[in-house]
Recover the amino acids of this structure.
């Protein structure tokens, strides 16, 4: 048997185990079972709330189905468990980064850094270029918060309301809001999907973000140009009134451009190739210092005290880092925006990653992923074909599994080895997962993202589909880059 000659796996290796006894239909049984269970769970039972835990458990059920297939193909329980352990071990860095992202978001909220970004971002509104301004505002806020859902549920609602007063199509406005929101969600290191994609592809967070700019910047530029043209071709009436929003932010926080020194410092550290964990830790600590200087009243409110002492300051900052915190303003529409889950808020995504690694590990151990990827490579032997099959898989899972996370997790694990065999760096896969998995989820009415966004904005998916230009253009852009071999990063030996 060939398996007797297999060398012990090094910690950095993530080889997909091959099982020659497994045929393609056996390999697909766990995939079909997983997709079917997820579709039922999301579409018929939990809807938007499926990520609260039920989808994670279904990933474990999918792993159980894969384990049964492996049992009948003489794969030992120990072999499956060992591969699960290796898979979870490979995500250690991503899990720690996610926790640090939650910590950073907490201190950047109470320090006024995120509110300041929103405060200055809202002021670029101009009726003449209202739609393009919607893209820019939502992009800024989504980058600052790392959440497209929060952006659309707060500022997005306000912008749709402003559009109605200007007699601008709410479908156009919703499309502009979502284009900007998903640009920020895709590019922000605070975003869970931005952390999830490189974790699944075996890459590194900031290399992934840097490589994404190659396709994302042209896409958002085309989107902005399109909305400028659309905006110039429509008539607007009235003047958008954001004074109440600005007053609410100004009343709750001490807004100052000096607060931007903290994110600038973190950006400079990233540019200088400082370790992501170090950069995030420094950003978190600087956010805490900025909170002490600029927002002592917020720290005292969190610590539930009237005086600022070492103990109250410690508690206020530590709570912001670790647990749910919120800062209330006079605007109910903005209150949801000024809340953070801290490190606790990242546990749901970490839970999802662990369960996905269990499913992927068992699929590795029984040889299912190897068999599926080889079959796909036989159908799409070229580099472009590999990119195209990844895009198709992401779109298919967004439609069938109704969940953007699984549209990243399953293809990411499935195609990781195939990209390696083609000599392609993991950034190629992680970028394709985001270009086709993250951003297109909002275009499918029964997907959790499509259902959520259309419900929050009060605009049906069919009405904003065409105007969500950034979202549907992104997978085309990544295929264009693949077809013409533009900046396709190769694996380099160290």
């Amino acid at each position: 048997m060939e398996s007797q000659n297999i060398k012990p796996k090094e910690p950095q290796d993530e080889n997909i185990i091959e099982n020659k006894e497994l045929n393609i239909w056996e390999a697909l049984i766990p995939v079909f079972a997983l997709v079917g269970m997820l579709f039922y769970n999301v579409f018929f039972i939990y809807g938007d709330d499926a990520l609260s835990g039920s989808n994670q458990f279904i990933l474990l059920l999918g792993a159980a189905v894969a384990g049964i297939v492996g049992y009948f193909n003489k794969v030992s329980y120990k072999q499956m468990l060992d591969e699960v352990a290796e898979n979870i071990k490979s995500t250690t860095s991503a899990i720690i980064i996610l926790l640090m992202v939650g910590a950073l978001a907490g201190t950047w909220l109470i320090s006024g850094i995120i509110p300041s970004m929103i405060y200055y971002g809202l002021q670029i509104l101009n009726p003449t270029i209202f739609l393009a301004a919607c893209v820019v505002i939502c992009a800024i806020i989504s980058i600052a918060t790392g959440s497209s859902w929060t952006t659309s549920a707060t500022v997005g609602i306000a912008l749709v309301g402003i559009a109605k007063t200007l007699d601008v199509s709410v479908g156009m406005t919703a499309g502009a809001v979502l284009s900007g929101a998903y640009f920020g969600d895709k590019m922000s290191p605070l975003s869970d999907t931005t952390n999830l994609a490189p974790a699944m592809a075996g890459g590194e967070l900031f290399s992934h973000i840097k490589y994404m700019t190659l396709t994302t910047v042209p896409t958002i530029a085309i989107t902005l140009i399109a909305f400028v043209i659309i905006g110039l071709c429509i008539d607007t009436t009235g003047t958008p009134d954001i004074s109440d929003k600005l007053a609410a932010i100004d009343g709750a926080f001490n807004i100052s451009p000096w607060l931007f020194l903290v994110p600038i410092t973190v950006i400079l550290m990233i540019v200088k190739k400082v370790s992501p964990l170090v950069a995030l830790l420094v950003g978190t600590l600087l956010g805490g210092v900025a909170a002490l200087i600029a927002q002592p009243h917020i720290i005292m409110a969190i610590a539930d005290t009237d005086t600022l002492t070492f103990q109250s300051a410690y508690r206020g900052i530590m709570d912001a880092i670790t647990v749910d915190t919120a800062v209330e303003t006079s605007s109910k529409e903005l209150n949801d925006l000024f809340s953070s889950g801290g490190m606790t808020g990242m546990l749901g995504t970490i839970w999802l990653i662990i369960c996905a690694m269990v499913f992927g590990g068992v699929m590795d151990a029984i040889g299912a992923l190897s068999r599926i990827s080889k079959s796909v490579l036989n159908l799409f032997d070229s580099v472009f074909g590999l990119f195209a099959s990844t895009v198709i898989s992401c779109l298919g899972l967004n439609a069938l599994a109704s969940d953007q996370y699984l549209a990243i997790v399953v293809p990411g694990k499935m195609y990781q080895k195939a990209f390696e065999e083609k000599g392609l760096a993991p950034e190629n896969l992680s970028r394709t997962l985001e270009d086709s998995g993250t951003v297109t989820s909002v275009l499918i009415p029964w997907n959790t993202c499509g259902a959520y966004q259309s419900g929050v904005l009060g605009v049906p998916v069919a009405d904003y589909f065409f105007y969500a230009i950034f979202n549907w253009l992104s997978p085309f852009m990544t295929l264009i880059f693949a077809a013409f071999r533009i900046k396709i990063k190769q694996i380099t030996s160290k």
Summary: Residues 15-91+346-483 form one domain. The chain has two domains: 15-91+346-483, 94-345. The beta strands are 325-326, 339-340.
